[in-house]
Write a structure and sequence with these properties.
about 350 residues; mainly alpha; disordered C terminus; disordered N terminus; single chain
């Protein structure tokens, strides 16, 4: 991602419409079925390639590479589900719901329709007390030791195991749905009896089990059925790590103000980051919050326009994910730059 030359704005910017023309916004928000299909083929192509390489040429190196790529593509499918939740992955509306559910959400144990409701609340109330994702960022900044412990729990599978327990509880109705933190206990048996719990399980867990059984069956048919274990292991380890790093980069240590130019961050992503923590241009998060219907393939162009016009505050454009890690591990005494509201 190249940083365009920026000229200083004449006054604090609070709306993207102060920077981009109506024609530019129309162009940036133009959707494409072809672009959505290509994005799916990229992620699923890398998934298939990882299984093939590790399955037919097994070694320590190929297994480790598969865990790296699979974790990144599990995040990639989650990002494409996120696009579908905004109905911006495909131009054809139904494709967002159908393919967004069966090829993006279900394989990584997510629920598109529930996520859509949750995520729109995040956009409407980002970095405020009503933000449902606030629990992901309020612990930061923290100490280096605390951050290392969190990342170690991710890679050791502790975070992933906790996530699985929470997902089961949510899918069966024992916890309210959340895509981040803050789930509350429920009593589904008392509310509707055992049949109600079983019905929730079929509806919520059914697509997850079907898609994962199809994946495992395909790998078995290809003679490399054991590689499905890599999908599960990546889900518990590298996916957890990449998911955390992505969340930290987006909102941790930003400002608790209404100005969308200040309460999120865009992060420069090089090749390794794009393969792991920043698939499908998710690193352009400030741009996404300014215009959430801009499809992922247009976010780099939008970033270029905003940088050229000096609209992105320097403190909201990180040079890379290492910079983000340094920022969020600066210690409890560190205060994020607040800037004008």
């Amino acid at each position: 991602m190249k940083q365009a030359e920026a000229s200083p704005p004449s006054a604090p910017v609070t709306s993207v419409r102060e920077v981009l023309s109506a024609e530019e916004i129309r162009s940036l928000t133009r959707l494409s079925d072809g672009a959505g299909a290509r994005a799916l083929m990229v992620s699923w192509g890398l998934i298939a390639g990882s299984f093939v390489v590790a399955g037919f040429w097994p070694s320590t190196l190929t297994v480790l590479l598969a865990l790296l790529v699979l974790g990144g593509r599990q995040l990639g499918l989650s990002i494409l589900m996120h696009e579908a939740s905004h109905r911006s992955l495909f131009r054809t509306r139904a494709l967002n719901d159908v393919l967004g559910t069966w090829l993006c959400a279900a394989p990584v144990w997510s629920r598109l329709l529930a996520y859509r409701v949750h995520h729109l609340q995040h956009h409407n109330h980002a970095n405020s007390a009503r933000d449902p994702d606030l629990g992901l960022v309020t612990p930061f900044p923290t100490s280096q030791a605390s951050l290392v412990r969190k990342l170690a729990r991710d890679l050791l599978g502790v975070t992933g195991a906790r996530r699985v327990v929470g997902l089961v509880a949510m899918d069966l109705g024992f916890l309210t749905y959340t895509a981040s933190t803050g789930a509350r206990r429920r009593h589904p048996v008392a509310e509707g009896g055992l049949a109600h719990v079983l019905g929730l399980g079929v509806r919520n867990l059914g697509p997850v089990l079907i898609t994962n059984a199809a994946m495992a069956g395909t790998l078995w048919w290809a003679g490399i059925g054991w590689t499905y274990a890599l999908w599960l292991l990546a889900y518990l380890t590298t996916f957890s790590l990449f998911l955390r790093l992505r969340a930290l980069a987006e909102h941790a240590c930003t400002s608790m103000v209404e100005n969308p130019f200040l309460h999120t961050r865009t992060t420069r992503a090089h090749l390794l980051a794009r393969l792991t923590v920043a698939p499908h241009h998710v690193n352009y998060h400030l741009e996404h919050h300014l215009l959430m219907t801009v499809p992922h393939q247009s976010l780099p162009r939008m970033h270029g326009l905003l940088m050229k016009r000096g609209a992105i505050p320097p403190a909201r454009f990180a040079s890379g994910y290492w910079e983000v890690l340094r920022l969020v591990s600066a210690g409890r005494g560190a205060v994020p730059e607040v800037g004008p509201a």
